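User: I'm preparing a small set of examples for a lab meeting where we compare how different chains pack in three dimensions. I only have the primary sequence for this one, and I'd like the structure in token form so I can line it up with the others. Please keep the answer compact; I'll paste it straight into my notes.
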Amino acid sequence: MTENKLATIPFNRPHVSQNELEYVAEAVRRGSTAGDGPFTGRSNTLLENMVGAEKALLTTSCTHALEMAALLLDLRPGDEVIMPSFTFVSTANAFALRGAVPVFADCRPDTLNIDERLIEAEITPRTRAIVVVHYAGVACQMDEIGAIARRHGLALVEDNAHGLGGSYRDRPLGSFGSMATQSFHVTKNVQCGEGGALLLNDAALVARAEVIREKGTNRSQFFRGQVDKYRWVDIGSSYLPSDVLAAQLTAQLESFDGIQSRRQAVWHAYHAELADWAADNEVAQPVVPGDRVHPAHLYYLLLPDLENRQALIAHLAERGVQAAFHYQPLHASPAGERYGRPASGGCPVTERVADRLVRLPLFADLDETDVSRVVDAVLSYEVA
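Assistant: Understood. Below is the structure token output for the 384-residue chain.
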């Protein structure tokens, strides 16, 4: 007789929100499937209201939003941009494409965000910007980083791929930099498969951002009746997503509060039920300072070493639970060594964190039974 096996709990499963299929069908029926259709406008407005941005521009990905930010900064070969080494490759790639040099700073051992205490030492006459990444949606030390940027006349850009719905001292993430980028990749809290947005908090950037997003033309002005024809007026590319994707995203954004409530329940269940096991086994749980609200984007554990991290992932897999490690240090990657440079003191915290971190399944449709399965699977692991 074959033994019944429980279904595997995936690391991620995209949530299908209310009205999602209806909106997609509506976009197709209307024939408004190209970029900047009605649903694109609705998504942009929802984002502007959520973050308080001057302007939101939906893009095909967060990567493309970062590329637009690099173009808006007018970066030249040899310019430097300070950013964390503990981030996704797009954070660096967007600026390296312009010939700029990513300067990789180490992260804090508590929040895993860029260590604001190390930034100022890396500023040179060639530094043009600071890029922060709110890891797991827990805000960086934005007061201190903002003060550094103002003191040195540097642009501040937020890679807010993890942080929509998070806040720092009651202010939404994505509202601190002159620009911020969002991701709506299938792994994010709200998603449309592939998608992103550029949030502009400086009104002076809006007109040029529209041109860059429309292949370097003033097409947006033409459709508003501000010019009699549109022309090529600047460099740019095609960064507009289909309105079919925007339709899906509109429904997701309209369901944001419900999605967040369910994700928060999962996050807090992990945090409470694993606390004693973590303390007994010298495993670190996420740190969320009291002046910050996080959006439950991901839940991670920091094991004592690489061997235990790998063993825990294998242990969970044997029990039908998919878990994953995360970023590998950019400063030590082949492209990072070629196009960027590490901070003067290196990135030892980043290297330790990258070897030890494991992420648990976290998505809106993870029910209480599956959360209990994940918790029990972790609790049954004996740290060596």
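A couple of notes for your slides: The radius of gyration is 21 Å. The first strand starts at residue 55 and ends at 59.

User: Perfect, thanks.
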